Amino acid sequence: MIYSGKKAVVLGLGHSGEAAALLLHEEGAKVTVCESGDSASQRAKSDALAAHGIRVILGAAADADPGAYDIAILSPGIDPAVPLVRNVISKNIPIIGELELAFEECSCPTVAITGTNGKTTTTGLTTAMLQSCGVRTMSSGNIGLPFATAVRSSHELDVMVLEVSSFQLETIRSFHPQVAVWLNLSPNHLDRYPGMQEYRAAKLRIFENQTASDIAVVNAASDLPPLEAARKITFSASRSDADFTLRGTQISFRGHPVLDQARTKLRGIHNAENLMAALAIGRALEVEFEIMAGAVAAYSPPAHRCEFVRDLDGVRWINDSKATNLDAMEMAIRSQDRPIVLIAGGKDKGFEFDAIAPLVRKRVRAAILIGEMKDRIAESWSGVDCHKAATLEEAVREAQKLAEAGDAVLLSPGTSSFDMFRNYGERGNLFKSCTNQLTS
């Protein structure tokens, strides 16, 4: 009961903020939530928290809250530069994140997985694999269920599997995963960070508190600084000097075959590395390879990541709404074995689409562009047959007109959805709904 009797302020009323407020309240803290917005859904959440005795301040009053607090909990989606946070900083109130708060209450070891791409797939895959192998575990964090909610069950678990983002890692203090996993790094969130160096530095904090008794699972192709504390297990689909390697569809550990990727439902080089990372986590937890291989072969990947939707008139429709950066888009394009009609675009996150233009020219027959970025993408993709659509529904109709038998229509936006949708899931679900309504 670290915060019993303390005054705590939670900044932000999203899922993480709501979970943090309830956890602090259960600990006996005097909790206030400050939220700059004042929507109908936020007022409904405010009423629900008020029923627990939690004070909520909405709108402009939250940005200028004069209260003095012992601790502040920052929700990961909130930029530290906004007035809501600057107000707290000006009063020298210590700030941690929901990840740190929940970790302080966690009763079991943790596995933490970060990377620009593959976090959700690897977290879900690892959790399902370990559960099938008899390990008591669950997943939480950036994957959907807040860690501050899941931590109530930690005393019943052997290990907690966490998906962690750079935003969550910004505010750690003692967060210490027994197994820390680095999948990859590519440009993303440059609307939040000044540059790649700052984005990389935030993610590298996952290793900050590890000791010699811990394990770092690392993509051997990543250019990381020396990790002197933790023991390393490396993986790579492109290098032969890693612990886990790929040859054809065969994944090997230090030269010994352990899994044929063709036996699984996960395809592509990116998924080979996700499988390697999961197997490396199992190895770190001393699970037998033979048992893990059977478990991952039975695993079905999550929605919105190169998800097959349907075949219609010889055209394959693929939902990759989870591709919210260029690296994910590149992986999706490379994983297709057909000419592509690509639906791309969305929120302006501060990076350009120029880098992927050569691959698009080579592999994409036509592109339909949506969202804030559609005009800039069209400019940077000279030589590509680009069309623009005002809505995703319009884009799907246009894709059907352009696609020929033997093509794949691929929704792989390359950026986030917040200019048009609440999240990538809503975007992907609408794409699937529109696609399934099409007729020959």
What does this structure look like?
The chain has 440 residues and is α/β, with parallel strands linked by helices. The protein has three domains: 7-93, NAD(P)-binding Rossmann-like Domain (Rossmann fold); 105-297, Mur-like, catalytic domain (UDP-N-acetylmuramoyl-L-alanine:D-glutamate ligase); 307-437, Protein-Tyrosine Phosphatase, Chain A, CATH 3.90.190. It is 34% helix and 21% strand. The chain contains 16 helices and 20 strands. The chain has helices at residues 15-27, 40-50, 60-63, 83-90, 98-105, 119-132, 147-150, 166-169, 196-204, 269-284, 289-297, 326-335, 357-363, 374-380, 392-402, 424-437, and strands spanning 7-11, 30-35, 55-58, 71-74, 95-97, 110-114, 137-141, 159-163, 179-182, 215-219, 231-235, 244-247, 250-253, 256-260, 307-312, 315-319, 340-344, 364-369, 386-388, 408-411. It has a six-stranded parallel β-sheet. Strand 18 (364-369), helix 14 and strand 19 form a beta-alpha-beta unit. Helix 6 (119-132) crosses helix 10, helix 10 packs across helix 11 and helix 15 (392-402) packs across helix 16. The chain starts with 6 loop residues before the first strand and ends with a helix.
